[in-house]
């Protein structure tokens, strides 16, 4: 359902990140926003200035002492061409924590309410400026860790997914209309068989499109959260040293004591456009040390969860039973095997490594050799065998959307099975209707309040 702009109360929040900066922005939205700021603003009359103008002046606390709170620039944007479709005032104040808070408090004392996380975007949705999948794109855009992720989010904000979903819904409606005709005018000869055939073909086609969308989900997740990449190996082979090489900083503690890394350490890093969520793990071995044991268990869990495994071997030693166990444990994972410490004489039995050559990379973390080859291999794996930028036009980037697509797909599956069993079209149409409803939840054409609250709570305050 699309709602007309409703008169909600006026909300305010600090929209810039907390902390010290050159400027900070306090955003106010709602029908009383302009009048409310005008009460404490000394400068041009904000209720009279043209829309989308920025106005210089001072904020005055009208209390007993009439103190000047700050020298500010105030942007006035009148409905409906604003982020929320309501009147918006943005106060650009000096970016100190104390100043910004005082400005916010002053605005709140004039009758605005502190906005909840994501409430500005929620209003944009409630007032019909963007749909639910676009709201989620706003959040993804803020969270984007790489240029590729940003592009995907921007596409979705532009409504690319919504357009596909809306078209599919329309096709379902057309199909349902056809069934209605069939029911209302049964005297049409053969209408029933035509409708069954049509329904089969159309349902199949829509299901195919849903499948294609669902296939983009895995890629979308990687773009958003990074490729979950676990660096594993037995103790002391140089895992933490390699992490530091990829990060270009000494983040992880490196010592010559086996069992140095105890806790799983993770970092986001952008390697040639590939978003990696790198996880340095404790060296895997049997141990009686309580703390190390926990570390080893966590390593094993990280290994299970990983999209990609970087298995590190020490090239200057012979293969050990531990190495062989890890080679066997990771053989079904997407993996790259790093032969580290190649600056030392090579003792590893390469001929006993029964793995494709392309997945073997020689490195030396101390000499910083091989990191380029590793970066190239990661990019190749990612762009040639995984996500490619050409597929980014429409992408499902979010688990909620994927699950709804999945449910719509399964409803259509039920339709097809019903038809196969010879059920009359007016019975199977119930599942067509369900598919239509699931798809509607993606864009928010169908929504319930609880879901919406959950969704917008994930936003930051001020957005
Ligand atoms: N010669 C040489 N030494 C290395 C290389 N990489 C790491 N080392 C050394 O090997 C030792 C162990 O390195 P770490 O990076 O702590 O190894 P780790 O695999 O993280 O070890 P744990 O955390 O104990 O599992 C340190 O003394 C490093 O300086 C390398 O390529 N060549
Ligand atoms: Mg380590």
TrEMBL record:
Residues 226-383 form the TrmE-type G domain. K(+) binds at residues 236, 255, 257, 260. It comes from the Bacteria. One of its GO terms (molecular function) is identical protein binding. One of its GO terms (cellular component) is cytosol. Its EC number is 3.6.-.-. Exhibits a very high intrinsic GTPase hydrolysis rate. Involved in the addition of a carboxymethylaminomethyl (cmnm) group at the wobble position (U34) of certain tRNAs, forming tRNA-cmnm(5)s(2)U34. NCBIfam families: mnmE_trmE_thdF, PRK05291.1-3, small_GTP. This is tRNA modification GTPase MnmE. The gene is mnmE.
């Amino acid at each position: 359902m699309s709602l007309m702009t409703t008169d909600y109360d006026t909300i305010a929040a600090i929209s810039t990140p907390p902390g010290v900066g050159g400027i900070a922005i306090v955003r106010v939205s709602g029908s009383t926003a302009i009048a409310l700021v005008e009460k404490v603003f000394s400068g041009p009359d904000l209720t009279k200035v043209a829309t989308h103008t920025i106005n210089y002046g001072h904020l005055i606390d009208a209390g007993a002492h009439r103190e000047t709170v700050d020298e500010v620039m105030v942007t006035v944007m009148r409905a409906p061409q604003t982020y929320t479709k309501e009147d918006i005032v943005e106060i650009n104040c000096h970016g100190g924590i104390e100043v910004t808070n005082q400005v916010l408090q002053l605005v709140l004392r004039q009758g605005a309410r502190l906005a909840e996380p994501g409430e500005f975007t929620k209003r944009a949705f409630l007032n019909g400026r963007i749909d639910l999948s676009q709201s989620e794109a706003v959040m993804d855009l803020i969270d984007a860790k790489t240029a590729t992720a940003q592009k995907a989010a921007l596409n979705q904000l532009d409504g690319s997914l919504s357009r596909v979903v809306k078209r599919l819904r329309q096709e379902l409606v057309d199909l349902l209309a056809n069934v209605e005709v069939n029911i209302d005018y049964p005297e049409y000869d053969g209408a029933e068989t035509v409708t069954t055939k049509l329904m089969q073909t159309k349902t199949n086609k829509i299901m195919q499109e849903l499948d294609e969308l669902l296939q983009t989900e895995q890629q979308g997740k990687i773009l958003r959260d990074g490729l979950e990449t676990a660096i594993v190996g037995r103790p002391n082979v140089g895992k933490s040293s390699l992490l530091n090489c990829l990060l270009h900083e000494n983040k992880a503690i490196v010592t010559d004591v086996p069992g140095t890394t105890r806790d799983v350490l993770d970092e986001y890093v952008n390697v040639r456009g590939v978003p990696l969520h790198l996880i340095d793990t404790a060296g895997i071995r049997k141990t009686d040390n309580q703390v190390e044991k926990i570390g080893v268990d966590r390593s094993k869990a990280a290994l299970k969860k990983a999209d990609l495994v970087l298995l590190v071997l020490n090239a200057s030693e012979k293969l050990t039973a531990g190495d062989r166990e890890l080679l066997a444990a990771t053989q079904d994972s997407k993996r790259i095997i790093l032969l580290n410490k190649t600056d030392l004489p090579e003792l590893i039995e390469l001929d006993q490594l029964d793995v494709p050559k392309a997945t073997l990379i020689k490195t030396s973390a101390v000499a910083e050799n091989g990191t380029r080859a590793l970066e190239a291999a990661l990019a190749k794996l990612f762009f040639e065998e995984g996500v490619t930028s050409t597929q980014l036009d429409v992408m499902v980037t979010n688990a909620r959307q994927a699950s709804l697509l999945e449910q719509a797909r399964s409803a259509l599956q039920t339709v097809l099975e019903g038809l196969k069993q010879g059920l009359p079209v007016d019975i199977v149409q119930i599942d067509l209707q369900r598919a239509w409803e699931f798809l509607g939840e993606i864009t928010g054409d169908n929504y319930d309040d609880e879901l919406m609250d959950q969704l917008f709570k994930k936003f930051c305050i001020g957005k």
